[in-house]
Amino acid sequence: MTLDFREAGLGPDAIEYMAAWELQREVHQQVVDGALPDTVLLLEHPPVFTAGKRTKPADRPADPGGAPVIDVDRGGQITFHGPGQLVGYPIVRLPDHVKVVDYVRRVEEALIAVCADFGVTTARVPGRSGVWLKADERGPERKIAAIGIRVSKGVTMHGFSLNCDVDMGWYDRFVPCGISDAGVTSLTRELGRDVPVTEVLESVRRHLADYLSWRAYDATPDYEPRPDPAKVPAASRTEPDAPVGVAVLTYPAR
């Protein structure tokens, strides 16, 4: 499979969330129709909080610091996007043999490989989606990349965010993904130097293209499982094979 990577707005050209959402819809429909190849939009957003389908009223920031809070049609809870954070929206058709959970794991694995390129060791935490650093002398277990997706008509939307050089003060305004017993970090914070979004682009393109070629791969060993504080009963999940903690919202083809 060939992925078409499009830089949709970086740095001073960061794209407003609603404009990017509309662009996603347009590209999604064209991929569904076969008019476009599988496409990955890479961009930055001005400061914005996005609330997924599992967001509770108490999760919303009491003081969003002037940033909008937008309800979106993806799984998961509330998260933040802003300058210095690379956002990727893979809009790809899932092969018949690839389950939604496998797709999420592949995106996580690609981001784990990106962090490894920069000398930052990460892995998954079973029960919680995204990419994490283990607790150490520098701090508690902490998330460096978040994932939340939607699948409609067999084609993915939404995607991931990787904290490169984002202002971490935004995360003091809310509880990211409803997880209060862990932290959030960035490549800049972990490496002690500025790591702009532009520095990670080549690595992200390379690893996403690799893992979304649907090849077999050896998964990075997980860290210790943790409970999902927003655990939902199995009977109410929208994706029957999705373990608790995977931010997924699926719709049947129509």
TrEMBL record:
Subcellular location: Cytoplasm
Gene: lipB
One Gene Ontology CC term in the entry: cytoplasm
Residues given in the record as substrate binding sites: 74-81, 146-148, 159-161
Family, similarity comment: Belongs to the LipB family.
Molecular function as annotated in GO: lipoyl(octanoyl) transferase activity
Enzyme Commission code(s) on record: 2.3.1.181
Record-linked InterPro entries: aa-tRNA-synth_II/BPL/LPL, BPL_LPL_catalytic, Octanoyltransferase, Octanoyltransferase_CS
Protein name from the UniProt record: Octanoyltransferase
Keyword Acyltransferase: yes
SUPFAM superfamilies on file: Class II aaRS and biotin synthetases
Site-annotated residues for Lowers pKa of active site Cys: 143
Source organism of the structure: Nocardioides aromaticivorans
Domain BPL/LPL catalytic positions: 34-216
Miscellaneous comment as given in the Swiss-Prot or TrEMBL entry: In the reaction, the free carboxyl group of octanoic acid is attached via an amide linkage to the epsilon-amino group of a specific lysine residue of lipoyl domains of lipoate-dependent enzymes.
Highest rank taxon of the organism: Bacteria
GO terms under biological process: protein lipoylation
Role, per record: Catalyzes the transfer of endogenously produced octanoic acid from octanoyl-acyl-carrier-protein onto the lipoyl domains of lipoate-dependent enzymes. Lipoyl-ACP can also act as a substrate although octanoyl-ACP is likely to be the physiological substrate.
Keyword field: Acyltransferase, Cytoplasm, Transferase
NCBIfam families, alphabetized: lipB (TIGR00214), PRK14345.1 (NF010925)
Top EC class for this record: transferase
Catalytic activity annotation: octanoyl-[ACP] + L-lysyl-[protein] = N(6)-octanoyl-L-lysyl-[protein] + holo-[ACP] + H(+)
Listed HAMAP family: LipB
Gene3D superfamilies according to UniProt: Bira Bifunctional Protein, Domain 2 (3.30.930.10)
This protein's pathway: Protein modification; protein lipoylation via endogenous pathway; protein N(6)-(lipoyl)lysine from octanoyl-[acyl-carrier-protein]: step 1/2
